[in-house]
Amino acid sequence: MNVEHNVELPMLYAGISREQRRKRAIELLSQVGLKERIKHYPNELSGGEQQRVAIARALANDPIIVLADEPTGNLDSKTGKEIMQMFKNLNEQGKTIILVTHDKEVAEFGKRLIEIKDGKIVSDKKKSPKIYVSDRKFELKRKRSFIASFLTGFLSGIRAILHNRLRSLLTVLGIVIGV
């Protein structure tokens, strides 16, 4: 999938209309600085750009909590700092960011540091005396009808088959030979 469809995917499963998905994807990609790369594929992006697409996709359904496991693991230090600044901005907007890392420099961005060793909490330090607690309530979005959901999934599958024609052809060939 290209960048736009990648960011739209969680919204597709949430039953959000095509127009709303596209608008939200463009908004999120602008927020992470990738609006001009919207039609590119993952193999055409740098590691930092791929990570920003993943963050935009994680934010697609406007979660209250974002879980990030080693978000700077395969990035150079400059891009890693950009990603951490993005997480800091998201936290200032009211998002709770739970980040797992082995990098002490990355951990220093946190307001609360919980160190775990051998499955046990070794330390729990609050760096910030005031930790923001959201009063926002979670709202379930209205699901679409079965037919609309089926058609959306079907079209998404057709798009994937057409994009990967050779792989799809070889898979069908393998099935036919196997049968």
Outline:
The protein has 179 residues and is α+β, with helices and mostly antiparallel strands. It is 50% helix and 13% strand.
Topology readout:
Blueprint: H1 3-13, H2 18-31, H3 47-58, E1 65-69, H4 77-92, E2 96-100, H5 104-107, E3 112-117, E4 120-126, H6 146-163, H7 165-178
Parallel strand pairs: 1-2
Antiparallel strand pairs: 3-4
Structural overview:
- By secondary structure, this protein is α+β, with helices and mostly antiparallel strands.
- The protein has seven helices and four strands.
- The protein has helices spanning 3-13, 18-31, 47-58, 77-92, 104-107, 146-163, 165-178, and strands spanning 65-69, 96-100, 112-117, 120-126.
- The strands form two sheets. The chain has a two-stranded parallel ribbon. The protein has a two-stranded antiparallel ribbon with strand order 3-4.
- β1, α4 (77-92) and β2 (96-100) form a beta-alpha-beta unit.
- α1 (3-13) packs parallel to α3 (47-58).
- The longest helix has 18 residues, at 146-163.
- The chain starts with a helix and ends with a helix.
- The model has no long low-confidence stretch (mean pLDDT 83).
Keywords, please?
single chain, two-stranded antiparallel ribbon, two-stranded parallel sheet, alpha+beta, 7 helices, globular, about 180 residues
Biggest β-sheet: strands ordered side by side in the sheet: 1-2
**Distance from first to last alpha carbon:** 30 Å
Oligomer: single chain
Helix vs. strand class: alpha+beta
Strand content: 5-15%
Binned, the helix content reads 40-55%
**Average pLDDT level:** 83
| Contiguous runs where pLDDT drops below 50 for at least 5 residues | none
